[in-house]
Amino acid sequence: MCLAVPAQVVEIVDQDNQIAKVDIGGVKRNISVALVDDVKVGDWVLVHVGFAIQKVDEEEAERTLEFLRQLGQPYEDELRAISQSEV
Amino acid sequence: MRFIDEFRNSGMAKGIVREIEKLADGLNLRIMEICGGHTHTIYRYGLHDVLPTNIELVHGPGCPVCVLPMGRVDDAITIAQKDGVILTTFGDMMRVPGSKGSLIEAQSYGADVRMVYSPLDALKIALQNPDLKVVFFAIGFETTSPSTAVTLIKAKEMGVSNFFVFCNHVLVVPAIRALLDSPETQIDGFIGPGHVTTVIGSKAWEFIPAEYGKGIVISGFEPLDMLQAIYMLVKQLVDGDPKVDVQYTRAVRPEGNMKAKALMERVFELRETFEWRGLGWIEKSALKLKQEFAKFDAELHFDLPNRQVSDPRVCQCGAVLRGAIFPWECRVFGTACTPETPIGACMVSSEGACAAVYQYGRYSRKVRELLHQKS
Ligand code: SF4
């Protein structure tokens, strides 16, 4: 559960409630962006338990994604949990 | 396992290891990685195998599931067994043994226990079930507690009355302080947790060099990150210049995530004291809900046994969490205690040291030898 997975913001769904849609390993999900300032479409963020906890640059995101893919099982479990989430 | 070989044979990894070897020549160093995620990277990639034998990596208490004492799991089960309650929690928590079984067992006896990915999912379940009480069994360090804070603020704004949080959020700094204050601890320096530090900021670690004269390097989670962090730490130790260094500069700022910290501040306050598995009672080491959020506080709403329960005699999770023994030194490691039949929390959680060694240790020369000696 301590994994933080990079995701790219594809849409600001609800500005007031700070909800954004992200692409996370090919899955599109709504997450909360209440913990980071000025999130824009195209930004990369680290996602932990349905919340963006930090913005990162694209290079960092790519690098982490590659690492997570190598990690295999824990990453797949996390993606499965994310895709079942109803946020 | 191709990528593990690839990593080990990469010029970069070999180069850093060679530099570490040169620097640490003639020294014996014990380095603690605080975060359970790092423990996993170490075993997964066999970092302890590629490092020189005079550098020992000791595992720390940075697994939120593992440090929760059994009494708190029992309390959660008590809540789950009440009529008209749905208890929600993260997947890792489901199989952690309490004194009378785990949440998953409680579920099989009819309790409504649901696994959620996010505290917001728990709130959503509350909105969908207005006639039931929905409790979120919240665990985690500062990476996770801001999310619970946002969820509570949202619940308050929406006027939700059937949502509760059983708060077990803990703070990493007091735990490390307690370790450093213990005479048992022989640690030369720390590899600091990357994600927690994105929230609390690297400045939060200044007390380690200032008050204890030891060094810390905040590291990312990839094997090369960790090797680089170990190099930076060994360099500090050799130079006699302990400080807070950041290897994971890509995500960590000195002041951390101010917004997340402010939200935590708004919702939580420090508990006088809190019990940690293995570390005992530590003052001001955990969070509870502030008065403003009292109506969401499961501890105030439900009558809980709140009993102190010691771990089973055979279980040595406490010693593992203090870095006093290695997982394979526990009497029941790999025999009575396996991920299928966990006796202690360190074998359950995906971040537990015992689980990491059990899962990947078999690829490790060192662990194989040690296990062989044991049997
Ligand atoms: S092997 Fe099992 S009982 Fe022993 S320390 Fe690890 S988790 Fe605890």
Provide a descriptive summary of the structure in words.
The complex is a heterodimer of chains A (87) and B (375). Chain A has 87 residues and is of the alpha+beta class. Chain A has a single domain (5-84), classed as SH3 type barrels. Helix content of chain A is 30%, strand content 38%. Chain A has 2 helices and 5 strands; from the N terminus they run βββββαα. Chain A has a 5-stranded antiparallel beta sheet with strand order 3-2-1-4-5. The longest helix of chain A is centred in the C-terminal third of the chain and has 14 residues, at 58-71. The two termini of chain A are 17 Å apart. The model of chain A has no long low-confidence stretch (mean pLDDT 84). Chain B is an alpha/beta fold and 375 residues long. Chain B folds into 3 domains: 2-63 and 181-246, 3-Layer(aba) Sandwich (Rossmann fold), CATH 3.40.50; 69-169 and 257-301, 3-Layer(aba) Sandwich (Rossmann fold); 317-374, no CATH class. Chain B has helices at residues 2-9, 11-24, 36-44, 47-50, 64-67, 70-80, 103-108, 119-128, 145-158, 172-181, 194-200, 207-212, 223-239, 258-267, 298-301, 317-321, 353-360, 365-374, and strands at 29-35, 55-62, 85-89, 112-115, 133-140, 163-169, 189-192, 215-218, 244-246, 268-270, 273-276, 280-283, 287-289. Chain B has a 5-stranded parallel beta sheet with strand order 2-1-7-8-9. Chain B is globular, with a radius of gyration of 21 Å. Chain B starts with a helix and ends with a helix. The relative contact order of chain B is 0.16. The model of chain B has no long low-confidence stretch (mean pLDDT 91). Classes of the chains: A alpha+beta (87), B alpha/beta (375). At the A-B interface, strand 5, helix 1 and helix 2 of A face helix 3, helix 8, helix 9, helix 11 and helix 14 of B. The complex binds iron/sulfur cluster (SF4). Residues 315-317, 320, 327, 330, 332-333, 337, 343-344, 346-347, 354 of chain B line the site of iron/sulfur cluster (SF4).
